Amino acid sequence: MTVAPxxxxxxxxxxLGLYLGLLYLRGDRKQGLVALHMLLGxxxxxxxxxxxxxxxxxxxxxxxxSFGKIAAGLFAVSAFSGFIAALARRSPVGANxxxxxxxxxxxxxxxxxxxxxxxx
Length: 120
Hints:
This protein is an all-alpha fold and 120 residues long. The protein has 4 helices and no strands. The longest helix has 28 residues, at 92-119. The chain crosses the membrane at residues 6-25, 32-54, 66-88, 95-117. Keywords: Membrane, Transmembrane, Transmembrane helix.
């Protein structure tokens, strides 16, 4: 398995997330795009984990600690904080903090993914 599907899916999730961030700052919400962002993010995380742990054809990475594994952890934290931010509607300040965490950790994970892909 190559890194191309992982890179395409997570790039699409990141681009859509940036667009959703612009809409959020304008006060507009598109629930369908939010759902697509969530599906792309979880799908990208799943394919990244598959790539890191190996595929049925036996291909696996041999690094004990790599940017790819750290990126996967950051994406998991980003997915969790984004999901909790959507549920935290009772406290607008808390929801904004969680959303800021989601954006920051997700972009850090994407940067590490790009560094990992460029090193392979």
